[in-house]
Amino acid sequence: MRQRRVSSRRGRFVAVYARPPRRSQSRVAELARSGFIDTEAAMRELDDPRLDVLGDQEELIAALAQVADPDLALRGLGRLLDAMGPGSDRDELLRALKGGTAQASRTLSVLGFSSTLADHLIRFPEQLRDLGDADPQERPDAAALRERMLRAVGADPVHEAPVAIGEHRDLLNALRIAYRRQLMSLAAVDLADGIEMPAVGAELAHLAGATLESALAISRAQLPDSAVPCRLAVIGMGKCGGRELNYVSDVDVLFVAESFDGADDDAALRTASLLATGAMRACSEHTAEGAIWPVDAALRPEGKAGPLARTLASYVRYYQDWAKTWEFQALLKARPVAGDRELGAAFVEQVGPMVWNASTRDNFVSDVQGMRRRVVSHIRPEEAERELKLGPGGLRDIEFAVQLLQLVHGRADDALHSGSTLEALAALTAGGYVGRDDGAVLDRAYCFLRTLEHRIQLRRLRRTHVVPQEEADLRVLGRSLGLRDAQDLTQRWRQEAREVRRLHEKLFYRPLLSAVAGLPGDGVRLSPEAALARLQALGYTDPRGALRHIEALTKGVSRRAAIQRTLLPVLLEWFADGPQPDTGLSGFRHISDALGESPWYLRLLRDDGAAAERMARVLASGRYATELMKRAPEAVSMLSGDAELVPRAREQLEAEVLTGMRRHDDPVEAIGVVRAMRRRELFRTAVADLVDQLPVREVGSALTGIAEATLAGALAAAVKAVETERRRPVPTRMAIISMGRLGGREMGYASDADVLFVHMPLPGASDEDATSAATAVANEMRRLLAIPSPEPAFTVDAALRPEGKAGPLVRTLASYAAYYDRWGEVWERQALLRAAGCCGDTELIRRFEALIDPLRWPSEGLSDAQVRAVRRMKARVEAERLPRGADRSTHLKLGPGGLSDVEWCAQLLQLRHAGRIERLRTTSTLDVFDIAVETGLLDDDDRQVLREAWCVASSIRNATVLVTGRASDSIPGDPEVLSAVSHVVGYGPGESTTFLDDYRRSARHARGVVERVFYDDPR
């Protein structure tokens, strides 16, 4: 044994015999595995005779391995044993440590995490008993903490206005010792037993309230005898009010004062200010026992420039007349925590309605969003990446998102009236305002981030929200949270922050929030009486019928009904902005009945305000898109973004249908694949048109691509059906030639598909057999497309073929050549101007186009006689084809300046000049005018007039179909339909007359140009 000298507790040195230190590699490895960093120092500590009283060191090492910082715990344990000396407390600790009790675990957890709390425990070792008594399931409530803290300063807890007894400085120290005692008890259980975060924050808030109550008792003891008695309530704000306080935090408060009956109000307010000032100092002043925390009253009206205490009436007047948006957001967490509870409750009752109606203020949502951005902008750049509270993905992101949702939706839902972030989040999730998955992610992230914040502060009892950079600190924090090392902690923290930021952006900037916030008070609550009055005010033509739809959508306690109760007040407004709100609401009910149980549907409308608004706009615009949506409700997903509304290329659609049809032998099932594609793409185009994403010319191109893919699929299905019936391949090659608006890529929603069928027998096949098979294919194709269906009809019209309906449906290439050579008239050449290959055999299409090109684009142009023939035909069409009783001035096709005028004008230019001007060889009406200007055939002013007339007429014709679901070449005469059509075209409510006047003016100008260019221009 070697001899060494150690200091005794009395300062004298005594000789002791110490065991030689063990330095084996296995010993070092054992300590390292147990979490020790400085193994040499740990072995020196373990070799210290002071620890011999603890018995088996292996058990001690095993216990230390469970704490966050074993090195710190071991050093603290030696200090604690020295501080206790012989006695019952020391014996009790030794028994606890040897027995591995909960008290031992909690003691080591405190010693092994917070040096500040360890210092407190060493100074007051008698408080170790608290750690043995602490039960994580039976923590003291607010009343118990209030009683303990008041008794610590000699005040009677039963008294309405307790007064502390004792010398002022002693009372301040007693308050601090008592506060630190309760804090240590909570921290020990938190570190060792793992209390859930909400319970920790709530107990800290209750402890803060009890401390403020005791501080008031100390302040009362300091009042001069001349002070006029007053009532004073302390209102907890921020995290204290929300019962989610940190270990080290400012405590935000407001002071509400009132005089007793008959007392002088001004004198009472002076007393209240003295009391408030004294209480704040009692908490924040530094003494031999340090300070507790600052009491911050800066959230009061007018901030630090305003009076410290106000009467209830003064607060109410201020909030009614002067308060800013952020002040109402702060009041969301207001709660009486000390002083006159009756007065505090009256304050909350008075300001509550103002808080829950704050979202109706102008720019409320944008103000809250701007405030969050300002908070982020004020973070110091060097700390931005490590800011746990204020930085992106931090606690404030969750709190601001939750508070904004609460304030917007809390007008109509009392379940959201909670100052606790997690309670409010749970209510928002239960009510359908936040998705279940999103709510669970935010709840988990908030608990983790708040617990990490608690640990960071508890380490040295410092107010900070910055994650440390040092690996040693991160390692200790990670171990306290059950994570292995610094890397695990950093990875978990970053992962939670990313999820929080993603959901913050999703919820906090949700467009639906601004819409809900903008609703009037009676519009956000869907009681039957309020809803009926609101429906009438919004302009619903059948309010009672609309009310029945609302009741069907919102009845019950299901999550679906809850979400629809949230959505409907806004949707009703959006429906009312459309031309047919009743149709919109009815359509919404049908779609919701079909898709209401699909989680993605209501989630899309709730989380994507743009999609919800688009849906409302589409449904309230008329029957066409609504009926398509009813037939394919899953198409609602297209409303989520602009990319979904971009028309698909014809090649993509054709490949889709041909691939899908291969899975079906039955031609009816095969054509079902084609119909499904067409239904979906018509809806896509209609929505893009209704939300002004597609100009009329692009609408025509999109509809043409859909028609071409439909014809290609139908042709493939028909060929397969005929081959199955004939039990041999079709002995001819077939092609479909587009004509009319299909060939010009200018189709409308109700346009027929004008086509020609051409075939060419395969080598060795007889003309008769080939023609028979080709005719069977064409007839089967038309039959399949004509099968009755609730969706928009698709008529294949071959009336432009030689000899019209009297001629054969299908001809060979040679037959077409013979007919046009012998019988072809000028009007047939004119019809061929818009011929274009559609689908089928590409070589046959090429040869057909080569056949007709000289006919439609004659190199010599037209003779004068032929020009006169074209003009006579035009006049005949105007005279004979206008429906009986139709108003010529509003007939979009055959009226003066209508589509026929403009298109005949373009076609005459082509017939006369395309033979020598190759660029005029196009099937597009508007392209003809552009090229005619470039080549000097047309004035630019005339082009603008003709282009505008064509676009306006085409837009009106399309709008009429979108509104009514039916084709019409006349502007509607019914005032309601006219109003709806004008709205879809772009006119506001009550502007139907302006709409008509504008159309007539455009058509009149176009007719003037046609008179000159078509009838008089010698060029």
TrEMBL record:
* Residue ranges of the region described as Adenylyl removase: 1-512
Q: What does this protein do?
A: Involved in the regulation of glutamine synthetase GlnA, a key enzyme in the process to assimilate ammonia. When cellular nitrogen levels are high, the C-terminal adenylyl transferase (AT) inactivates GlnA by covalent transfer of an adenylyl group from ATP to specific tyrosine residue of GlnA, thus reducing its activity. Conversely, when nitrogen levels are low, the N-terminal adenylyl removase (AR) activates GlnA by removing the adenylyl group by phosphorolysis, increasing its activity.
One Pfam family name from the record?
Answer: GlnE
Q: Where is the signal peptide?
A: none
Q: Which CDD domains match?
A: NT_GlnE_GlnD_like
Which cofactor(s) does the record list? Mg(2+)
Q: Where is the Glutamate-ammonia ligase adenylyltransferase repeated domain?
A: 107-349, 613-849
The reaction(s) catalysed by this protein are:
[glutamine synthetase]-L-tyrosine + ATP = [glutamine synthetase]-O(4)-(5'-adenylyl)-L-tyrosine + diphosphate; [glutamine synthetase]-O(4)-(5'-adenylyl)-L-tyrosine + phosphate = [glutamine synthetase]-L-tyrosine + ADP
EC number, as in UniProt: 2.7.7.89, 2.7.7.42
Domain PII-uridylyltransferase/Glutamine-synthetase adenylyltransferase: from-to ranges: 383-508, 871-1013
What is the taxonomic lineage of the source species? Bacteria, Bacillati, Actinomycetota, Actinomycetes, Jiangellales
Identify the species of origin. Phytoactinopolyspora alkaliphila
Q: Where is this region: Adenylyl transferase?
A: 520-1019
Which SUPFAM superfamilies does the entry link to?
A: Nucleotidyltransferase (SSF81301), Nucleotidyltransferase substrate binding subunit/domain (SSF81593)
Q: Which GO terms describe its cellular component?
A: cytosol
In Swiss-Prot or TrEMBL terms, this protein is called: Bifunctional glutamine synthetase adenylyltransferase/adenylyl-removing enzyme
Gene behind this chain? glnE
InterPro entries reported in the protein's UniProt record: GlnE, GlnE_rpt_dom, NT_sf, PII_UdlTrfase/GS_AdlTrfase
Q: GO: which molecular function terms?
A: [glutamate-ammonia-ligase] adenylyltransferase activity; [glutamine synthetase]-adenylyl-L-tyrosine phosphorylase activity; ATP binding; magnesium ion binding
Q: What biological-process terms (Gene Ontology) are attached? A: regulation of glutamine family amino acid metabolic process
